[in-house]
Amino acid sequence: MRRELKIILVTLAVGGAWAIGGRVPGMLDEVEAFHVSDVQVAGARYLTDDDVRDLMELDSEANIWSDASIWADRLERHTLVESARVRRRLPGTLLVDIRERRPVALVSTPTLEPVDADGVLLPIDPSVVRLDLPIIEAGRDVASGARLVPGATRELIREVVRLMDGDTAFLQMVSEVAWADDRTLVARWSDPAVDFLLQPGTSSHRIREGILSLDHAVAQDPRNHPDVVDLRFADQVVIRRKE
Fold first, then answer.
1. Of the four, 6, 42, 139, 177, which is 20 to 30 A from 218 by CA?
2. Residue 111: predicted pLDDT
3. Which sequence spans correspond to the domains of the chain?
4. In this structure, are residues 184 and 233 in contact, taking their beta carbons and an 8 Å threshold?
5. Each residue of 76-101: b (16+ CB within 10 Å) or e?
6. Burial of 217 (0-12, 13-18, 19+ CB in 10 A)
7. Domain 105-240 - what CATH class?
């Protein structure tokens, strides 16, 4: 009971200091009642609660009145963390809000590694975490230890993100995305095996025209399945076989 009363009195004193714009006395760093007893993490999908505690470098003497910006800075040093915010909840809880970088594709480096919309390589193991994402053919090898993929690959990633925002259903069918030699964007379906040939910036409306034309061609001749849908020409959809 004495401990709870002490916490209440100190909390009221702190609240009063905040109310009049004062600073919290440095002596609170030494009050055992305010040692960090719990960390509650929100927004993390790939980092575990233990990962977060380790990144914040919390020890048994950590006090919630320590500088929260230092903990946030430590979290943001991690490649997966785009932004972090640390708040206090008396007497001993830290509330950690994290926004992680979102993987949008897999890049061969030569092993498959996830990347976000900015082309940042993310430390997520696809063999452990299921990632249903298209594979991007990098124009050249990614340097060992690099954090970013090459510029041409980042441009390809931006096209993937644009397709994702415009037509998620189409992108879910895409297994691989690459540049052809003439700067044509090749979006490859694996089942059925079809290559969509696109100009950069092709609209979702135009892609839907290609899918409808493909469906019509298959309905007309189911035994002669086309494997190329060419959308590079204005007002035309060219359906053909590669040979």
1. 177
2. 84
3. 2-100, 105-240
4. no
5. bebebbbebbbebeebbebebebebb
6. middle
7. alpha beta
Q: How buried is residue 129: exposed, middle or buried, by Cβ count under 10 Å (0-12/13-18/19+)?
A: exposed
- The helix or strand, by DSSP H or E, that contains position 13, with its residue range, turns out to be helix 2-19
Identify the DSSP state of 103: P
Q: Model pTM greater than 0.90?
A: no
Q: What is the pLDDT of residue 193?
A: 93
Query: Splitting the chain (243 residues) into consecutive groups of 10 residues, what average pLDDT does each group show?
Result: 50 46 49 80 95 93 90 97 95 95 91 93 92 83 79 92 89 92 90 94 93 94 91 92 77
Q: Which two tokens stand for residue 66?
A: 């320590």
Q: What is the pLDDT of residue 74?
A: 97
Q: What is the CATH number of domain 2-100?
A: 3.10.20.310
